[in-house]
Specification:
single chain; six-stranded mixed beta sheet
Amino acid sequence: MKMRTLLVIVCFLFVFIALSAYIGWNGYVFWNAAISPQLDAVYWVFFALIAYGYLAAMLLRRLIPYRLYAALKTIGSYGMAVLFYALLTLPAADVLVALLRWAGVERDYAIARTGWVELLVLLLILLRGSWNARSPVVRRYDIEIAKPAGTRRELRLAVASDLHLGTTVGRRHLTRLVERVEALKPDIVLLPGDVLDDSIEPFVRERMADVMRRLKAPLGVYASLGNHEYIGGHIAEYTERMREIGIEVLIDRVVRVADSFYVAGRKDASVERFAGGGRLSVDELLADADRSLPIVLLDHQPYKLGAAAESGVDLMLSGHTHRGQMAPNHWITGRLFELDWGYLRKGAMHAIVSSGFGTWGPPVRIGSRSELLDIRIAFRSETVGPAE
């Protein structure tokens, strides 16, 4: 298993270096034609920061000062978006230069004009993508569950998955979440995993708990673990810090809320890979629950929806996919998951997958939006789909 993992990493690095070399060489040719043939070192330092800043930050995290680590990671995060869309658009730019040369246009002129257009396209993508990431929408779902919930007839949930709090998503974006949740006035707040990006250090250093403690609801605030909490480690410290600010992290645990309904939180599927442990099946998790009451399940990765439905879950909430975050990645997530975003009825169960409130890697979204879910449940004798 270790040899296989090492082989995957080596192959990934080889492909990444090869693709970044292709992009870097195109940029270098443009730099010489349009800016300066004498400042090669300046270009290559600039390109290295963009292309390898994120990787360098992750590898050197324990060896360099925190502020340098945060700066490198932020630059590299935007750089990842630049490389991604450069890789998609540069082949067309290369073809255009070839056509201009064939038509008799002077080489440096063709390269310079095409290069400026390429830079403008990348800039517009970054600007729009940053706006999509930093301007979250509130997406509403109205569902009905054919179970009694004590004397309660309705329930309003605010759901935010994939905050990815760290160096690129910090206090400002977290404040946006708090303000929007406050405006919704939900009965309960649920966070289905990846509250942290990877390391817990930015969360502690930037005192994000001071902002997050403002998340309040009459019936409480509950979270589950995502793959990034396991990647970063420090699960015990994270859950304790959350508990101190009034947020209960459910790790393969079920709570009965107001004697009306259940909230269940599963360990993330990545526990087997990153923590060397296992997790309960949904059936095992709900073994002691009264399944005549409504059950809301937080399961970060939207796998095996059918198994959850067969176990009596009424509403399954997930995230993880980000809906690909940057198009056309949604074509991939759409094939990997039965439901990679939005709503699906699975038997009697309602499944909802959020594109997430934060971002992983580039703080950029194309073809997706950062979102907070406003879910309104009516407890009825018959079930129907969500309102249009």
